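Hi V.,

You were right to ask for the full record rather than a summary. Here it is.
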Amino acid sequence: MKLVFFSETDDPAPWREALRTALPGIDFRVWPDVGDPADVRYTLVWKPPAGWHRRFPALRAILSLGAGVDALLEDPDLPAGVPITRMVDAGMGRQMAEYAAHGVMHFHRRMPEYAALQREGRWQPLECPAATEFPVGVLGLGVLGAQAAQMLVAMGYPVNAWTRTPRTLPGVTCYAGDAGRAAFLAGSRVLVNFLPLTPDTRGLIDRSLLAGLPRGAYLVNLARGGHVVEDDLLAALDDGQLAGAMLDVFGSEPLPVGHRFWRHPRVIVTPHIAAVTMAEGAADQVIENLKRLEAGDTPRGLVDRSRGY
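Predicted structure:
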């Protein structure tokens, strides 16, 4: 079977080695070295160009190198009926939970204010609430959001969560749907976004949602930039509704040089590094899915195109 690898950010070498070791018969190709496109059964990809998949007429499945597949689904020329799989954790859950915990602690322990004091050369201890008095709101309780929520609970933070449909998780106060969103927001000093990007969640973090948070709250976004209405976020930061934001994802990546986020005093920018797919932890999942697909079985992480994840 022939598989084509495409990513502008991932090194294909460890993937080639892992897949060839486990599947000796695989013809592992790295774009643009494809050979005959009609022989390609599978693609292993991260953000290929729109229309890229049209060149493979015998494609059996598309395997995403990430947990999010919104970039794939936005391609109007994506072959209909071809199964798509996404990574299910594969080590990313721990990384994202760590990033979320860092963001919560960064704001809880008032680190932005200490950084400003350092720039002024001022030695000034600041009062800090106990973790039990700094409730965290987690948007989304999928595999990644649930792992972060559990880590934050273990750290002593009260954790609320909001999901589209009712969910339960030990130690977490769960809210669901439109009826539960107002109470969820009102009880969250810092909002951490783990939602998948779908037509229903695009632009969800807007002026109205941010206004529902306590004044002086914080935002940590490590899901997708498309969730945020950037002008509304900047307005909330400028007028003090939000005291700070830590952003790992953006509507346009790389973040344009002149964007206000770069120099806004209340914004921390990181370059989409909250979780990185590592071949060492994720190749087994790809190998298992290729075996399942070849046997006619259902792969793990099968994407429901209608739901967007």
